[in-house]
TrEMBL record, chain A:
Organism: Huso huso (Beluga)
Family membership noted in the UniProt record: Belongs to the calcineurin regulatory subunit family. CHP subfamily.
Pfam families to which the protein is assigned, alphabetical: EF-hand_1
Official protein name in the record: Calcineurin B homologous protein 3
PANTHER family (UniProt xref): CALCINEURIN B HOMOLOGOUS PROTEIN 3
TrEMBL record, chain B:
Signal peptide range: none
Span of domain Sodium/hydrogen exchanger regulatory region: 569-654
Membrane-protein topology: Multi-pass membrane protein
Protein name: Sodium/hydrogen exchanger
Transmembrane segments: 64-83, 95-116, 128-145, 157-179, 191-213, 225-245, 260-284, 356-373, 379-405, 417-436, 448-471
Gene3D superfamilies hit by this protein: 6.10.140.1330, 6.10.250.1040, 6.10.250.2020
Length: 216, 765
């Protein structure tokens, strides 16, 4: 199911709601937003997202936009690569990573949700899709985070190096002097996040979205 | 049950042997207590000798009244501190009983002692309490308030503080009035308004008691901030209700207009207090911008401005506690960016010290006042008060949580609710407010005071003592002792930006959006005004990184270069992360060859060095000094090596003095290239250390047994021995190939292995 006509019908909405875990109202609201962003076309392109004024001050804007067009976020087993434009279903799928927890969730479902969210984050760091976050990629992340300040110098490299060292220490423990730590794999990434409740932190309240405040 | 285990083990041990420290403490205590009750009047004798006749010059005189007030104050504080010392000498006791209980017991004892001596024990004066004893505790709490946790739960905290307290007051007041109306209890003279007033006094959760108990049980951050935040923010409600009922209790009735005014008053009191606090906080931050030349008085500004905020709020009958909290919270990020590290430490320790002393004094005085105060015991009244307190608290928490959980992401479980309900302790604020009541308007004041004290005792003793085993029993999540790591900081910031971005894409102006807007506004305008110089432009990540570096450097220097974590320390170092991939790959054989050549060259020069020293610089003291210096350098080098394991400090960073000295005094880059220029008797710095593989190899090869320890003795493994015996002077050894290896300092930075690779490369090119 790629593009939709101007108004999806009931079955489609229900199908999407089931697939992504949103409620029917949320799907409708998001659909309206999708229409607004894509200027009533059927597919969304990068320029549409870049056009959001609030997003301009965000230091990791490029990575956020890229995440929407990254195939890995559409489906668990989809191939790597990026697409040029996405339909409403893919938009919804990416958004579904930010669903909050439901009250009655089994341990297994919680774990599943946690893994999903962490995989999304990991994909955002791992730009070249090799399954590891290398030092270069990490440095890039830190650089982006600091990009709004003019005088960074080589601090970002130092910070990224220290962070990488810490990550390696947590994940590997003992290493021979001539072993090389390739990068942070997904398992290591999970280890780093063990203390933190990502399920509760990484969410956006989709409940109350007032369409009148939506911008261009 | 942990309590039972403790008791069992303690009974197995031998009966309590009074050690001499305890006796000393007891003597000290008695010595401080007794003068408090003694009322001497010796100066009267001096006044009568008025120069009518010449008498002998008084060599030694006794004039106590002169210093009576400061003396007594100092004695009280000394007593409080000695008590604190004493508790921690008795370890078993402090595990079972929270400190607050012990202090109240001590207060009771002291009060009893004073009464026995025949004096009237001092009562906790409300003015002293509100103006001197309470502010340090609140400032300490406000300055170190965890902002993130607090702001995430503000809605919940406000609900509990405002609505919870209102519910408690009205329920208690109403029910007590109903009970009093029952004929036959002898309480008919308690009207509706006085009982509502009493309800409002007794229903407020007390921050001092909560802090005292919760600090010891290390509960998880969410519960801690909920109960503690509630106890702080309910001050506004208490103040308004108290004044409202007190004003109109005399009149006897409250109209609707008064209630409306009361609501407006509540808004004014709370928002006004916060505004006052913010104002003083900003002024304090602005002042701290200019203190770079007078670092010594920086802490003073923090304390004075906060106290002024409190007092100014009290002038207008606004909520002083909220003013203090707001001042501390607003002031902190800017002041910390401006003041020196030492001032920061000073502020932290002074606040902790004052709040600790205040807390101790408050509890002791509570005990003393119990002995002193006029009491009027009425079984029914006191019993009902206690019962209704518990019931209203439980009902309130359950009811509010069911409403709150509809809006929360992280729902509050039943366990959480229980702890919140159980943690609603009452304390000295309730007592002081009751004490302030005018006896004329409230003839039943004594009864009120008795009931208040009973409730305080019950909550502090029973609830305070049992909360710890209950927390263990219910397996409530404890506080996680995680150190903030740089990774966490990066991820948290990344996540914040990500969520803000997603909210923008959704078009939903939510929590993250406003937080982001606020922080951008802060960065653009406010920080420029309030933070001095360069620091204002420093992004948060870099500031955090610098802080972490400094902390680790201080830790390292303090521990003398020995890492805190013993042998399980990770051997991961920078070379594991970023090996120099730029090196062309040499074949293994070629590498071995190069190594051998260089090793032999190094040894040759080392021999030359040794001989140079021995022959020409014969003076022993010189060599001793040299060895001393080498040992010191060695220590410094070890320090550095461990630092490079933890941090990556770029070369242009300001270093600790040890490292700077070591770097200045050895400049190996230049020297190492002179390896083959044989004739210059230069001091060659040997980069090999005991940890590098080749020296280890050489060490293991041939070790002469029975040799006394001469430091690392390096036996040369030389393929051709012809050129080595030139000027070798060996201190009486058999083998001419033995030399003493001088461990010298090498440069900081990449470990010697890699550095050698670099040099080899430079060599070959």
């Amino acid at each position: 199911m790629g593009a939709f006509h101007s108004r999806p019908d009931e079955n489609d909405i229900r199908h999407l709601a089931e697939k992504t875990g949103f409620s029917v109202e949320q799907v409708e609201i998001l659909h309206r937003r999708f229409k607004q962003l894509s200027r009533d076309e059927d597919t969304l392109q990068r320029e549409h997202l870049y056009g959001i004024p609030d997003l301009e001050c965000n230091p990791i804007r490029t990575q956020i936009v890229a995440a929407f067009f990254d195939k890995r976020n559409f489906d668990k087993d989809s191939p790597q690569g990026t697409v040029q434009e996405i339909g409403f279903e893919q938009f919804l799928t990416v958004m579904s990573h930010f669903r909050p927890l439901k009250l009655r969730m089994t341990e297994e479902q919680r774990e599943q949700l946690r893994l999903e969210k962490l995989q999304f984050l990991f994909n955002m760091y791992d730009l070249d899709n090799d399954g590891k976050i290398s030092l270069e990629e990490y440095r890039h992340v830190v650089y982006e985070l600091l990009s709004q300040n003019p005088q960074i110098g080589n601090e970002s490299a130092a910070i990224a190096d220290a962070a990488m060292l810490e990550a390696a220490t947590i994940c590997m423990g003992q290493m021979e002097p001539d072993q090389v730590y390739e990068g942070i794999t997904f398992q290591d990434f999970l280890k780093m996040w063990t203390g933190i409740d990502i399920e509760t932190k990484m969410h956006v309240r989709f409940l109350k979205m007032d369409n009148t405040t939506l911008c261009k | 049950m942990p309590v039972r285990d403790l008791l069992r083990t303690s009974s197995k041990l031998s009966p309590f042997q009074p050690r001499y420290e305890h006796l000393l403490l007891l003597v000290c205590v008695l010595g401080t207590v007794l003068p408090l009750g003694v009322d001497c009047n010796p100066s009267a004798e001096n006044h009568q000798n008025n120069g009518t006749q010449k008498k002998s010059f008084p060599v030694l005189s006794f004039d106590y009244l002169h210093v009576r007030l400061p003396f007594e104050i100092a004695l009280w504080i000394l007593l409080a501190s000695l008590m604190k010392l004493g508790f921690h000498l008795i370890p078993r006791l402090s595990n079972i009983v929270p400190e607050s209980c012990l202090l109240i017991v001590v207060g009771l004892l002291v009060g009893g002692l004073i009464k026995v001596v025949g004096e009237a024990p001092p009562v906790l004066d409300s003015k002293v309490f509100f103006l001197c004893l309470l502010p340090p505790i609140i400032l300490d709490a406000g300055y170190f308030l965890p902002i993130r946790a607090f702001s995430e739960n503000t809605g919940t905290i406000l609900m509990f503080a405002v609505i919870g307290t209102l519910w408690n007051s009205f329920f208690m007041g109403g029910m007590l009035y109903a009970v009093c109306q029952i004929p036959g209890t002898g309480l008919e003279n308690v009207g509706l308004l006085p009982s509502l007033l009493f309800g409002s006094i007794i229903s407020a959760v007390d921050p001092v008691a909560v802090l005292a108990v919760f600090e010891e049980i290390h509960i998880n951050e969410l519960l801690h901030i909920l109960v503690f935040g509630e106890s702080l923010l309910n001050d506004a409600v208490t103040v308004v209700l108290y004044h409202l009922f007190e004003e109109y209790a005399g009149v006897g009735s409250v109209t609707f207009m008064d209630v409306l005014l009361g609501v407006i008053c509540f808004l004014v009191v709370s928002l006004g207090g916060v505004f006052m606090g913010i104002l003083y906080g900003l002024i304090a931050a602005f002042t701290s911008r200019f203190t770079s030349h007078t670092r010594v008085i920086e802490p003073l500004f923090v304390f004075l401005y906060s106290y002024m905020a409190y007092l100014s709020a009290e002038v207008f009958h606004l909520s002083g506690i909220m003013a203090l909290i707001a001042c501390g919270v607003v002031m902190r990020p800017y002041v910390e960016a401006n003041i020196s590290q030492k001032s920061h430490t000073t502020i932290k320790y002074f606040l902790k010290m004052w709040s600790s002393v205040s807390e101790t004094l408050i509890f002791i005085f509570l005990g003393v006042s119990t002995v002193a105060g006029p009491h009027q015991w009425n079984w029914i009244f006191v019993g009902c008060t206690l019962l209704f307190c518990l019931v209203s608290r439980v009902l309130g928490v359950i009811g509010l949580t069911s409403i709150i959980n509809k809006f929360r992401i992280v729902k509050l479980t039943t366990k959480d609710q229980f702890i919140i309900a159980y943690g609603g302790l009452r304390g000295a604020i309730a007592f002081s407010l009751g004490f302030l009541l005018d006896k004329g308007h409230f003839p039943m004041r004594d009864m009120f005071l008795t009931a208040i004290i009973t409730v305080i005792f019950f909550t502090v003793f029973v609830q305070g003592m049992t909360i710890r085993p209950l927390v263990e029993l219910l397996a409530v999540k404890k506080k996680q002792e995680t150190k903030r790591s740089i990774n966490e900081e990066i991820h948290t910031q990344f996540l914040d930006h990500l969520l803000t971005g997603i909210e923008d894409v959704c078009g939903h102006y939510g929590h993250h959006h406003w937080k982001d807007k606020l922080s951008r506004f802060n960065k653009k305008y406010i920080k420029k005004c309030l933070i001095a110089g360069e620091r204002s432009k420093e992004p948060q990540l870099i500031a955090f990184y610098h802080k972490m570096e400094m902390k680790q450097a201080i830790e390292l220097v303090e521990s003398g270069g020995i890492p805190k974590i013993p042998s399980a320390v990770s051997t991961v170092s920078m070379q594991n992360i970023k090996p120099k991939r730029a090196l062309p790959q040499l074949s293994k054989g070629k590498e071995e060859e190069i190594r051998n050549i260089l090793r032999s060259n190094l040894q040759r020069t080392r021999q030359r060095l040794r001989s140079y020293n021995r022959h020409t610089l014969m003076a022993d003291p010189y060599e001793d000094a040299w060895n001393q210096m080498l040992i010191r350098r060695q220590k410094a080098r070890q320090l550095e090596k461990r630092m490079t394991n933890y941090l990556t400090v770029p070369a242009n960073h300001p270093d600790s003095p040890t490292m700077m000295r070591s770097r200045l005094s050895s400049d190996p880059q230049g020297y190492s290239l002179k390896l083959n220029s044989g004739n210059v008797p230069a001091i060659v710095v040997d980069p090999a250390t005991p940890q590098s593989p080749e020296s280890m190899k050489l060490l293991e090869e041939s070790s002469k047994p029975g040799e006394e320890d001469q430091g690392i003795v390096m036996r040369a493994k030389l393929p051709e021995s012809s050129r080595t015996d030139d000027n070798v002077f060996t201190p009486g050894e058999d083998s001419p190939k033995e030399q003493r290896l001088i461990r010298c300092l090498s440069d900081p930075g990449p470990p010697p292995e890699e550095e050698k690779d670099d040099e080899y490369q430079a060599f070959l090119n």
